Amino acid sequence: MSTASSVRPYRVTGRNLGLDLARVTEAAAIASARWTGRGQKNAADGAAVQAMRTAFDTVAIDGTVTIGEGEMDEAPMLYIGEKVGCGGDEMDIAVDPLEGTNLCARSMPNAITVVALAERGKFLHAPDIYMQKLAVGPGLPDDLIDINASIEVNLRELARAKKCAVSDLTLCALERERHEELVAKTLEAGARVRLLSDGDVAGVVATCMPESGVDLYAGSGGAPEGVLAAAAIRCLHGQMQGQLLFDDAAQAERARQMSAGRDPTRTLALTDMADGPVFFCATGVTSGDMLKGVEWLRNDYIRTHSVMMRSESGTIRYMDTYHHVHPRS
């Protein structure tokens, strides 16, 4: 039995920006949720972007979007390099105003709004390209996974670390034609496979949620989502590696320009993607494994469900919020 003297004291750290970020993701979630099930993913995404950008005007930071909606000439707001916040500490911002636009449009689970925050220069700067990803949860030996090894080797090492059979493991990946070989080899090794139609931030985070049943995430998806997932994995003490995937030399050169002289073709460790103290915040749009979706209640209230994570303290906070609004038209 623990004694009072053996219990670790509660750690009080500096200012927590989690609540400020929650207001940003809540605003985006409420705005996009009005389009749930309407089959219009672009309208849902546009509503989320507009609401998130407006909400950032209330956050006391000097923020620069490093992972956003694309290059300046591709996105009207929340573009890479845009300044956000109303003044304060210099911070890097990574956003996905609506992860799972198709999920929202089709009223399917796991659509979320996401923001991550780090000190200036601590997030990976990369163009909007694909990234190969490999992730596992906490409590495992350091450097357990290897993105350059086969999936069979990674499954075998993970099973050994978890003291279980490969057949007890579940791999999560996006359901894409490019992942057919990954899925086939995973099944041949004896593990289970869970496929997602969209939303690989939630898929990566699921490796750190015991109730999700996901042991390993693998496959390629957006590099912006990779950085956001890395921020969450930092807070949850999991492991993750990445590799940027280039279609041509121009993309590789653009990545070099954004990487401050570092080789963008290298294998990315977790801290290459998200370093230093980081915050991660997400709000559910449609209910899923991680968060409940937006609910319209009686008496002009909207209910949201959010999670706020902080790497410095390891704190994870879930928040149910009731927003008083005017009746829906």
From TrEMBL:
Keywords: Carbohydrate metabolism, Hydrolase, Manganese, Metal-binding. Coiled coil: none annotated. CDD domains: FBPase_glpX. It comes from the Bacteria. Pfam families: FBPase_glpX. It catalyses: beta-D-fructose 1,6-bisphosphate + H2O = beta-D-fructose 6-phosphate + phosphate. Transmembrane segments: none annotated. Belongs to the FBPase class 2 family. NCBIfam families: glpX. PANTHER family: FRUCTOSE-1,6-BISPHOSPHATASE 1 CLASS 2-RELATED (PTHR30447:SF0), FRUCTOSE-1,6-BISPHOSPHATASE CLASS 2 (PTHR30447). This is Fructose-1,6-bisphosphatase. The lineage of its organism: Bacteria, Pseudomonadati, Pseudomonadota, Alphaproteobacteria, Acetobacterales.
